Protein 1
Amino acid sequence: MIQENAIAQSVVDAAYKIHVALGPGLLESVYERVLAHELVKRGHRVAVQTPIPIVYDGMVLDDAFRADLIVDERVIIELKSVEQLQPVHKKQLTTYLKLNAINLSKILIIIT
């Protein structure tokens, strides 16, 4: 399996290519679809809008959260099309990693 650093490098390269081609200001959903397409072209397995369940006291909420993209079952990508990141964005990703059953090991935020 491809190592996380190589995946992250491929993601950053793809995101930069997309940013140069499309520029800022589009909806996150547009960047999500385009980035998924670009990563698949590069040979990655990409899961889009993957449900992340919460398990509490025997109760399972199957789709409490959704990860924008999961690449090669190793790297989670949460896309943000914002002027400035807020502390809640990092907390959101930390929660996704904590709750995710496949134990993803990288956090990557793309600002467009």
Protein 2
Amino acid sequence: MLISELAESTGVSPRALRHYEEKGLLIPDRDSSGYRDYSESDAIRVAQIRTMIAAGLGTSTIRRYLDCARTGDHGISLQMCPDLRAELDSLAERLDARQAELRRTRQRLTELESVD
């Protein structure tokens, strides 16, 4: 399928698909004219990429662990490949720290509102 067809079927813009290709996340075949030729497995790969991005993973992390992504009856999951657990734990720690910072900021705002 052409890039426009893959974009339509996955809900991802052609620009994003080209970005995934630039980052080494998606490697389409090329036809004799040089056009990208995507397969159904590329559509699955795009869904895996989108799920990983939505979970907060950056493209460099996704590139390292994309082969750990699995698509099954219950959606997309990650098989715990070597070092992946440490990456996910690190991301969770950064998110926890950011949440704590936001709570402190919200508390300071509340304190400002109550000053007469």
